[in-house]
Task: structure prediction
Amino acid sequence: MSFAPARNVLFATALLLLPAAALAAHGTTPLKVVETMDIDAQPAKVWAIVADFQNWTWLPGVSKIEGSGGATPDQAKRRLSLNNGVVVEESLTKFDAERMSLGYHVDSVDLKRLPATNYSVIVTVKAAEGGKSNVEWKGRFYRGYPNANPPPELSDEVAEKAVTELHKASLAALKARVETQ
Amino acid sequence: MKHGARAALLLALCLGLRCARADEAFVANQSSDDLTIVDLAAMKPVATLSIGGKPAGVAVARDGSRAYVTSPDGKFVSVIDARERKVIKRLSISGGPLGVAVAPDGKHIYVAELFRRRLVEIDPESEKTRDVEVGAMPSGVALTPDGRFVIVADRDDNALSIVDAASFVRVATVSVGRHPFGIVIDAQGQRAYTANVESDDVSVVDLAARKTIASIPVGKRPYSVALAQGRGFVADQYSESVSVFDAAAMAPVSRIKVGEYPESVATSRDGNMIYVTNWFSNELWSIDAKALKVVAKATTGDGPRAFGAFIRAAD
Result:
């Protein structure tokens, strides 16, 4: 999956029924998705690309990235312009070069693009056997519907599936970026 | 005390008629649907109880006899015999039960229903209930040490509700920072402290005056707060730190780096240690409350929340 919007008519209908204020809130159960991928390159080489927070143009479906604050947590922000014209804003929450790990929060909530709220990510590069890398892409988020008894298209399962696909696609794109360098 | 000395002390206690237990943490793991009981002297898991319903909130009775665990998705509260480490029964709760606290005498529990703007009082023996309207998305719950007032963090109202425990009437609301989640009350019953997730600060509330007297800046996305050694300890989820503040000066002291996405902090009964659950990295960390240093780490289940007073005192 790319950052492209989900084509779901039912889903758009459900959105209309949501009170605007409710989108700011979220439910009770944070969801967790952890995806990993082996990459055939030294961890330092992979981390150099991940650490370049303002230049993740290798992400699928992204046409342009503008940002400020470099890679300083609580200051760095970036705006991803997607191929379909949607803009996604993100803020860096942590940058730990020693552990080769960074985290960011997705400030833009657009349930048509991704049926999840309060979505944040930690990407960590770990050493694997034979001088290779294992990259972990972890997400924390809530389903799109903030209250009890969500409509089926805004359930925990739908959110988990969408985020899992996004993480797999992002890891595959990182792998392609590193291995074809 | 060093681990070896603690183990030796434990062994000595076990030579008596009854093997006394160390302090334990009752850690509700929301993603793995269970509860890890961690021996805090050894910092080792000693039991795992199946809970279900995506457990999040925990409250252990002062006498250590019972622990209560909320399951917001399952819409129930599990009553646990804390000594026997067994689930005794489930109490059904509508809405999304999250925050929970036990009265000092252990006779009632108080559960915040996130989606229904209600605080519910339950007698866990008779299962009789009373409920009262509070604010929007009520989250953390705490009682004054005398048991007279129940204080609820009404997350989406940016306020606290003060409920008279005897009449079960909401007697006041107090404005605090943005999205208060965790709440703790000092041993004197004079001040309440809330961790405000969206304003990245802690509100200090004078309970007699019923007003906020200070706000203390902490790290990003604070979820919960605990008190020890005249200091406050705050789990900052995005900063991945525990912020420490001086309770008298109402000012920051330092920040301690912890695991990924710390959620819930609690204090040992002797006030010497702080424990923090790390939701993303599935760990419980201990911190020396005087030296302000990380002491040890224990593995939990997946997605440890343990929102509430999750420490069972040694007996």
User: Anything to note?
Assistant: Chain A touches chain B through 19 residues (CB under 8 Å).
